[in-house]
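Retro notes, item 3 of 5
We never archived the inputs for the D-mannonic acid complex last cycle. Fixing that now. Sequence and ligand:
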Amino acid sequence: MQTLHQAALAHLPAAADVAPHYAAPLQLPLYPRTESSIGVVHLGLGAFHRAHQAMVFDALLERGDARWGVLGVAMRSTGLADALAAQGGLYTVQVSSREGPRWQVVGAVLQTCVAAREPAQVVAAMAAPGTRWVTLTVTEKGYGPALADLLVQGLAARRAAGLGGLTLASCDNLSDNGRKLQKLCVDAAAQQDSALARWIDSACAFPNSMVDRIVPAATAQQRADAARVLGVMDACALGTEGFWEWVIERRFVDAADGAALAAVGVTVVEDVKPFEEAKLRMLNGSHTAMALIGAVLGLSTIADCVARPAIRRFVYGLMTDVVMPHLQRPGLPAYRDALLARFDNPQLHHSVHQIATDSSLKIPFRWQATALAQLAAGGSIEPLALATAVWMRYLRGEDESGQVYAISDPMGATLQATAQQHSGDVPGTVQALLAVTSMWGDALPRDARWATRVAYWLQSIMQHGVAASLEACCPGY
Ligand code: CS2
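Structure as it came back at the time:
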C-alpha cells in the first residue's frame, strides 16, 4: 500500500469507494499547500498540537489565508517529526463525536524538525520574516532553561534582523501560562542583554490561553482504520473527540489576528482566567483523580473509570461540591455534564497511565487551589483528600490485584522512595508526602484538617480498598 503524501492527495478515493459500508465523511486539505508559508513555529510537536491548533491553522489556510502554515518542532524525540516529514507533513485525524466518526487529512504542518537535533533551524524559523507566531505545548516540565535558551536565541536573531516581535502563545495546562512564558524569556534574555530583554517585553506578545481537546496517544488500531478509509498508509494517524476549545487573551502583535482566529471558532477574550481555572480544576483535576484511581484499581481507560458508578459519583461530587463553588466560568452545571459525557466517549481509549504521567507536576495546578479554597470556606474536602490518598497509594507502583506498573514522573523515584520508607505507617506517609512543597505549597501541609482527612482516607484504602473508600466518600449522588 502507498504512503500518504502530497501527490497522493489528488488520488485519494472518496471514503465510500474504499469501504462502501463506511459512510464517515473524509475532509482533505484542498488549499494550495505549496503556496502556503510558515507563519507559526510550534514547539512540542505531538498528538495534542496535531489534533487541536494545527487543525485551527488548517481551517485558516482553508479560508485562503496562506500565512498560517506550521513548522512543527519536536523538542527531542525524532520519530514523529521524521515520520511526518516523510509524508510531507500530512496526517489523518479521526474525530469521534456522538454523531459518529469523521476523518480529516490535515495539511497545516508544512515542515518538521527536532529542536535538540536542528536548533539552528528553529532559530532561523523564528527569525524569518514570514513567521508571526510561536505556539507551545511542551508540557508542564518543559518550562526550563533549555526552552528559554532556544526562544531567546530565536528572538535575538529576529531582533538582529530588524524584524518586529512575535506572538508567543503557551498552550500548556499551567495557570497564567502566557505570563509565565514571558517571564521565562525576559529573565533569560536579561542575563545576556538588557536591551534584548526590553525588546522582548515590549515588541512581543504573550497571551494567556486555555486549550482543550482530549487527544489520547495514537494507537495501531487508528493507523489501521485510517489505511482502510484512505486507501493509503498513514504512520501518523491519530484520533480525538469532536469537542475542542481554544480561549485566548486578546494580546497579539498583530491585533487583526484576534478576528482571524475568532472566525474559525477560537474564543478571544480579555481575561482567560475563568476559562483556565474551570478547565484545569474540572477537567484536568478530575482526569488526574480518575487516572490514579483507575491505575490502583487496574482499569485501563477514563471511559472504564466513569463506567463504574462509584467513580462517576465521585467525579460528579468532586466537581459539584468541591470545585465548582470557586469557579467563575458561566454555565458550570452544563460544563460539568458535558465533561462527564466527554469522559464517557468509548472511542477515545484514553489511558489512565498516560494521564497519570508527571502527576507531581500536574497536581499543583489541578487540585491545590481547590483544596485551599474549600479549607478556607470550611467546605467539603473529602473527594480531594481521598484523591490525594489514592495518589499516595499509587506510588506503590502496584495495583490492588498485584499488577506492577511503571510511574513516569521526574519526581517518581524520590516520591516512591519516600512512600516506601514509611510503608505501613499511615500518618508518617501522609506527613512525609505532604511535605513536598513543590506539590502542595506551604499552606496545605500545615492545615491539620487536610492532613487528618488525607490520613483517614489512606487508612481506609489500606484497610478496605479504593472501591469501598469511593463508595464511602460519595454515596449521595
Ligand atoms: C490530561 C490532558 O494527560 C493529561 O494530563 O488531563 O492531556 C487533557 O486530556 C487535556 O488537557 C484536555 O484538554
